[in-house]
Amino acid sequence: MPRISEVAASLGLLLLIGVISVDGLVKEGDYQNSLYQQNLESNSATGATASFPFLMPNVSPQTPDLYLCTPIKVDPTTTYYIVGFNPNATMNTAHHMLLYGCGEPGTSKTTWNCGEMNRASQEESASPCGPHSNSQIVYAWARDAQKLNLPEGVGFKVGKNSPIKYLVLQVHYAHIDKFRDGSTDDSGVFLDYTEEPRKKLAGTLLLGTDGQIPAMKTEHLETACEVNEQKVLHPFAYRVHTHGLGKVVSGYRVRTNSEGEQEWLQLGKRDPLTPQMFYNTSNTDPIIEGDKIAVRCTMQSTRHRTTKIGPTNEDEMCNFYLMYYVDHGETLNMKFCFSQGAPYYFWSNPDSGLHNIPHIEASTL
User: Fold this and answer.
1) Where in the chain are disulfide-linked cysteines found (predicted)?
2) CATH of the domain at 156
């Protein structure tokens, strides 16, 4: 994999990061990503796109199922627009990666344990973003997904005039055998960005569930949320994520017509054990105030035990990421939508507000 030193000439963001060691959690290699500056006047004048390598600083995880975070501070005097994501990772090393947009990072450390749901570790941990700051997921990757380019004219706004003042990279290291000899890792993502203003601002809505899957059973984990903001969303990409028991994940826009019937429009449907990249949505029809977004994960267990939702490879997850843009104004204030999941929450519950539910089977992929 490329090292930061090989691509330092392409840097454009002003990064201010304190170098603080993490004792016990990881063995750190040379930390090269401490401070970079580059004159952006030529890029700004031409509207050119540059690339920034946001990579783990040569870490060597020593704890299985470790979630590790590292931050960068975006230049607060300039507004940038991220227009593409080029992953620098393989599934043999990283189980998955998330890129958070934060008002403040979870700590002032260079790297930290950010496995919020995993309290088994004795290491001190913190969330990716500070407890009282803006927090949203910008991008996600798993299973050798390829590069994502946003549609023409669309970008994620960061820096000045944006609540995103820091970007935090989270990498889940499910297995650590390859690091026992002292090897290090620089998994991460190359961010394509520009200073040229974008009228179409991108956002990512994460839908997911809590819950559990019974032993030797097929279970549906479901969630739904209503858009209650006066904004028009243009969906363009989706990504699904489960661990090993996932068979299919599907997402829908649900709209009530003039006759009072709910019409279900598929946004995306995918086998989660294929590359977990962002795919084009099945439909790009707008999502408006009053619409619901509904997600189902079909899980099939061959285990002789109950499997709960959780962070480790022995647990499960049910996630659907919907990427969208707005033509004017800011993106949704709602960044996350989660339900209790099975056995407590289902679309068919009387209080879910859902009806006319389509018959959805994994075999229809």
Assistant:
1) 69-114, 102-129, 225-337, 297-318
2) 2.60.120.310
Shared domain check, 91 and 188: yes
Rg from Cα positions in the chain: 20
The residues, any chain, with a CB within 8 Å of residue 147's CB and separated by 6 or more, are 84, 85, 86, 87
Buried (b) or exposed (e) across 292-320, using 16+ Cβ within 10 A?
bbbbbbbbebeeeeebebbbbeebbbbbb
Which of the listed residues 167, 198, 229 is the one where a domain comes to its end?
Answer: 198
Among residues 198, 215, 245, which one ends one of the domains? 198
When divided into structural domains, the chain yields a total of 2
- What pLDDT does residue 116 have? 57
Which active-site residues does the annotation give? 95-96, 170, 172, 241, 243, 317
pLDDT at 52: 95
For residue 118, tell me if it sits in a domain. yes
pLDDT average per 10 residues of sequence, the chain (365 residues):
32 31 35 32 57 93 89 94 91 86 94 69 77 90 85 96 95 87 90 94 96 97 97 96 94 96 96 88 97 97 96 90 95 95 96 88 45
Quick one: which H or E segment has residue 143?
none
Q: Is 355 assigned a ligand-binding role in the annotation?
A: no
Does 175 carry a binding-site annotation?
no
Range of the domain at 247: 207-339
User: Could you tell me the end-to-end alpha-carbon distance of the chain, in angstroms, rounded to an integer?
Assistant: 34
Q: Are residues 173 and 226 in the same domain?
A: no
Q: Are 181 and 212 part of one and the same domain?
A: no
Cβ contacts of residue 164 below 8 Å, gap of 6+? 74, 101, 102, 103, 134, 136, 138, 156, 157, 158
Pair 126, 117: CB distance under 8 Å? no
Please indicate if the annotation marks 56 as binding a ligand: no
* Model pTM score: 0.83
- Which pLDDT does position 4 carry in this prediction? 29
